[in-house]
Amino acid sequence: MFSYPSLRSDGGLASSRSTGDSPVNHLMSGPAGGVAGAIHFCNQAGFENILTFDMGGTSTDVALIQNSKAKIRRETLVGDVRVKAPSVDVRTVGAGGGSIAFVPELTKALRVGPESAGAVPGPAAYMKGGEQPTVCDANIVLGLLPSDVQLGGDMIINKEAAEKAVQTIADGIGIDLMEAAEGIIRIVNESMFGALRLVSVEQGFDPRDFALVGFGGAGPLHANALGILSNSFPVIIPPGPGVLCAYGDATTQIQDESSRSYLSMAQDITTDKFLNDLSELKEKASSSLLKDGVSDANLEVTYQADVRYAGQAFQITVEFDEKEYQSKGIQLITDAFDEEHYQLFTFKLSDGHEILMIRAIVKVQQSEIKSLVNENFAGSLDDAVIQDSRFYHEAQWHDAKIYDRTKLHAKLVVPGPAIVSEMDSTSVILPGYAAEVDQVGNLIINPKK
Predict the structure, then answer these.
(1) Domain limit, last residue, from 159, 188, 217
(2) Of the candidates 358, 89, 90, 365, which has an alpha carbon nearest to the alpha carbon of residue 254?
(3) 364, 384, 417 — which closes off a domain?
(4) What whole-number distance in Å separates Cα of residue 210 and Cα of residue 425?
(5) Least confident of 43-47, 287-291, 336-340, 388-392
(6) How far apart, in whole angstroms, are the C-alpha atoms of residue 53 and residue 50?
């Protein structure tokens, strides 16, 4: 049985070095590795605009990907310390499979998290000493995480212990057991939806324009429900969702960058000088990779400029390439800045653009990994059924089948209500929805036609 509070997608991402005015070496953290893995599988499946949703045992990390590129922050606050190093723009909320549900004595209103039971003692159902009700226990009570079959490992979970823990919530607010369990799941889903709004709506993006990718040990359990809340479809469950960061490690691009302060008004910049400055940055950024034995033919180069309106205290990073600049000149950068400024703040100005910094980013071409679709299995959907089951959703029980994901292949469609199991995670397909298996191995969940 998989243990999603302990199967976080927390691996590392290949390093990215920075040279120039302020040399910085940094290593992108585990959440960024999961984002890289999600980009890889979704890009292969033809989805360039996605919202990523990585739910583990203690927290959920979300990010917005546009045109197959993650947004990068040039500085990050860690507590009260401002770290001036590039990082993937990932937002985190204290909602995970081990998040503890409780009823405050004063308000008698159900709360979930941010305190977590972790992996030890873990949820009550793990029988490792935990007694407090968690999101995991609520999923077990509802049947979304079946307790009567070992889905992907050797661990046995105790449904009676989960029911006993969740019953304390039911007694605390005077409702029945199933209503309490569903209430826990709804609250944690709303918490994660709030995080998704931070990276979409509050940044000027409509989540309906994005697909939603669920991964992490617990993400696939909640992904369909989050897709309904955000109206982001399709909902995509990539292969190996519980360890997606490992695929991110294998497919991410090693890069080096070089930057320099510029502090020039856009109208004062000449094309020849600007191109010469970009070329110098490209050479600096490429040198370390070439010394590592990377062929010049395997390098990809993009450029960025940090731009603001004169007098502003913040800037927006604009990405462009050399050929576009040679064609359109500095207006390429100012127009892109105006468009993003309008998206964020609903206004733009006709002039007064100030270029604060320019940088060259040199990447090694992305590696490819073999498709994870089971090409040797050509059976029918019935051949992939493990057993019949049922789960509780929207105040009623639904008959469902449990499917073995390793026996699913392209062109099969799994109708909901259903549960799809694999070694590292469990995916739930809700009533009224269906999951198609694509050529990459993704589960593509959409409303039934």
Answers:
(1) 188
(2) 365
(3) 364
(4) 23
(5) 287-291
(6) 10
CATH (domain of 308): 3.30.1490
H-helix or E-strand spanning residue 344? helix 331-345
In a domain, 323, yes or no: yes
Check whether residue 167 and residue 264 sit in a common domain: no
Residue pLDDT, tens place only, 129-166: 999 999 999 999 999 998 876 545 567 789 999 999 99
Domain membership of residue 311 (yes or no) is yes
- The span from the CA of 105 to the CA of 251, in Å, is 50
Q: Is 221 within the bounds of a domain?
A: no
Q: Which of 436, 437, 438, 440 is nearest to 448 (CA)?
A: 436
Which positions ≥6 away from 81 have C-beta within 8 Å?
A: none
Which residues face 299 on adjacent strands? 364
Give the distance from CA 376 to its chain's centroid.
Answer: 30
Residue 293 in tokens: 């034995």
Rg (CA), the chain: 24
Model-wide pTM > 0.90: no
In a domain, 435, yes or no: no
Query: What's the number of domains the chain is made of?
Result: 2
Beta pairing class for 235-237 and 211-215? parallel
Q: Which of 68, 75, 77, 22 is nearest to 363 (CA)?
A: 68
Domain extent for 346: 255-364
CA angle 413, 418, 420 (to 5 degrees): 80
Q: What angle do CA 71, 362, 271 make, to 5 degrees?
A: 90
